Queue: 2 jobs
Job 1
Amino acid sequence: MYVLIEAATQQEHQRTAAASTLSLRRSICPSLTRSSRTGYYASGSPRFTITPTSSAGDTIAMNVEHESRSPLPQSSPQPPDPVHLPPSSTRAVHSDPRAEGTSIHDCNNPLVLSDPTSHLSLSSIPFTNMAISTKVVPKAVLYYDPHRVWSSAVRLALEEKGYGDDEVDFKMVDLAKGQNFFPSFLRLNPKGTLPGLIVPFENTLPAEIESRYKAVTDTTAIVELLDRSRSAMSRTHTTSFAPAPVLSPATISFSGVSKTIIDVVHAGPASPVLLFYMNARDSSTLQSVSKTVLPFLRGRCDALDRYLSDNKSSSISISEKTKTFWLEKKRATEELLITMSDAGKADAELSDQFSIADIHIVAWLAWLIKLSGGSMTDNGADAIRKLERHIVDGFRLPKDAFPPSSQASSSEGTTLMNPVAQAKLSIIWDNVKERPSWKKVYGGNA
């Protein structure tokens, strides 16, 4: 935070007072250095503005007002300037250049600006024209979802690097509610992904310049930026005194290994996004996984429907590019939703969903059983046992499936209380035998 103290004198005794040594006392603060032109830098409390209200002789009364944080711009800047995390609670205190003895201290007492020989409160400073102006120093903003893997990675990096709690603003975006597809978020990140770190350009931090921002939306780039922006040697841009270990590998060899590991976990079969949708080993775990995935997909789909509807009714105005993006995401989400909805159903619920593929499989299987010496009246276990024996002695189909409860009593050795694993073809055989079409075509005869 920057506080600019400008002192202007109009009378000779005021110039004399300006040349005297002044100190600005507050609570706990290390000694500070002064630059040749810009004054002093210190960390401290919220920004304020002091303006004169009245004067009497050598005394002037002042008003002190706190300033609130300005909202984050909705669009990212264009110039490709270097990006750095801002000195979020650092402020430059400028005084009259003629008052060379000016120094700054921190204490927990109310703010006092005083002469070393005679303590003068802010309301009795012997200047007839004094103003304190301020600028809200921009902070980095992290858009994240606490339940998503790469948002957690960035938060881990912030903690490992020792950033202070007041150095980054956190904005939660609920992916399960499709908040990442909202127009204002897409202006920050057109891909609609998380996490996203919005950082101000270093050369736009001074009070006289309007702050500009850049959006960093790649997790790897965000972590690397956080690693570079704070080190054991750079205390200027942080309010924290925690250690700042270097996270990047120290050698080229280790850098290559590190990059390979990062690439593997972010893409391909190991991608957390892919694993989220494919986290099932069998039909039982697939039904369990669907209970987690289905609410997520429905929330996204509902949000996209709402955004498209609002755009159609002119409640919100978006570009054709954004509309196309929404439609593509909606189609992909609906496809996943259909797949997961079927996966979430028990086998018994799917028995009536007889498809074209089933017609071919049933006719083919019945023919094989007949060639193997089986009968259309055999139960599944007997029919498949005859098929295995006919193929070659010792051949066995994997027995890794369990019949639905409605079918348990018709399967050999299987009861509701004691299900027995069977070959999938055995379960299919018992299932299709109950269908009206089977009974009409095969009539229960060999």
Job 2
Amino acid sequence: MTCGSWYTRFLFLKQTHSFTPCLCPSECPFESSCPHNISQRVLERQATTEHDTCAQNEATSYYTSCNFLKTSEKWRVADTAERFSQQNRETPPGSSNLLETLLENHRTSNSSATLSSCVSMEPCACAEECMFTALSHADVTFGKMEGYLRSRQLCDVILVAGDRRIPAHRLVLSSVSDYFAAMFTSDVREAKQDEVKMEGVDPDALWVLVQYAYTGRLELREDTIESLLSASCLLQLSSVVQACCAFLMKQLHPSNCLGIRSYADAQGCHDLQRAAHAYTMEHFLEVVGGQEFLLLPVEEMERLLTSDDVNVPDEETVVTSLLTWVSHDVATRERHLPSLLAHIRLPLLQPQFLADLESNPLLRDSMECQRLLMEGMKYHLLPQRRPLLQSPRTRPRKATVGAMFAVGGMDATKGATSIEQYCLRRDTWRQVATMSGRRLQFGVAVLDDRLYVVGGRDGLKTLNTVECYNPHSKTWSVMPPMSTHRHGLGVAVLEGPMYAVGGHDGWSYLSTVERWDPQARQWSFVASMATPRSTVGVAVLNGKLYAVGGRDGSSCLRSVECFDPHTNRWNGCAPMAKRRGGVGVATWHGFLYAIGGHDAPASSLASRLSDCVERYDPQTDVWTTVAPMSISRDAVGVCLLGDRLYAVGGYDGQVYLNTVEAYDPQTNEWTQVAPLCVGRAGACVVAVRL
């Protein structure tokens, strides 16, 4: 557009863009493009004739500036103009019409965008950039509050403990302690008192905790920890309670664990109580030699005797500790002896030890004590009646049963060489050793507390080699080999010698049996079974060797044979209800158990894995089905540990299992226990007294 005169150009700009002079030129952030400055420059050139190009450039500059203002600062212009009008600020002559025009344009604009920008003034969308945070605010504030505490300024309450008066601020105490929060914010007498009596609180401990409320710091010392813990429990300072308990846990020792356990119980510190109790159980042999043990009240002594977790090598140790405790104060404690002796597992004592107890001066004059001793004697004299004599006194303590070992087996790497050990008291597995080489389908038996690993196969090669592992020294030794190479064999110890039963030699299924004489250190053959058996289950019961199930090359077997070493003959027994190869077997109190397995070769489409458990009674020659496992397990390792049967690992048709479950014959129930470190099938599982 070409404008002939400055006035024509000015009218064009005014009518087209409705500008107004800047109302606050000193504060305007857009000084160079402000409408006021542009219009001022136009007015100042009223008497000057310029080329149309100059006017056009001026108009272009103004138009650009107005567009910027419309999008970025329109709300500010409108708001400034509004305030200008309300305050009746004096304007230059000839400017009022322009101001009214600007305000009218803002009020009546049909543009929703213009209306929105004029009316809606939203805060900054980036709150993080607009919010100021004083990072040290809490430290500075509480630092000043601590200063007020020490100078006794602005204090509004005095805590009285004993002869000590401690000024403080209710707000600070309430913000840290739930005890004080409840006191000062509820309708109780103390909420309105200037002085509050703190009954039963150590004054020094209270002062330390008041300082902690302001600083968040306190010193933990052996000589003050108990009073500090008691006070923090009362004041419900949970963080201080936790810190004190953690401190005391680190101080646990055989000489103080009983006292800490009793103290924690009184204070309701359950984590500390459990830690002290576990420490006492773990170090029982050292604890009974300390002064705290001799001073135990009868209730605490009874608590120790009833625990299954006492870490003792045998039940004789527990009896000895009881008699020591009674002897420390015979006059007071002798009357408690019958009730305490009832918690001793007397049937599990050695017969000679029981006979000696019968003549003990503390026991011989008590009819109840003599009755309990006779009960223990009957357990030894009538072994065939033991299943009928089961009671809490016949359940062994966890530490007295030894440990369970799971040796080798098939795993995801096609052959595990590791040996894992299970601790019943802790319910944990850990790897303890490694075999010298890979073995599959081997046998393991315990002889003189050593593990004998017999036969097996390494890939396609069937082995006749034997290794011996000493769990005490954690060493391996090589033993004389068998006469026959065998995998899928069963191994067990009967009256001293070890037997290797059946298996496969790489060519055929075996019915032959070899016996290892530990004295002569040599192998010899005994009578063969009536049926060849591989993946056979072998166990010893009532002086006889049982061979259960297995495979004969054509099918899985349900037949059972037993070997009498005195006649060197195998005799048939009642067959199981199910065919079982890869079966796990174990004995408990006169019964033989057959657990899991498969009923046909894996190549058969009809092959099924089993969760079924059967129990054999040699007195009646009858198999009975009992509670099944939670899942099917083929090639499962089975072992008696304590008074429970453990089913370890196995194969469920898809994966090698690391799960373990325990069967309680007294309740006929299975329960899950800690899993193996490595899933494995065909592991040999045995128990060893450590």
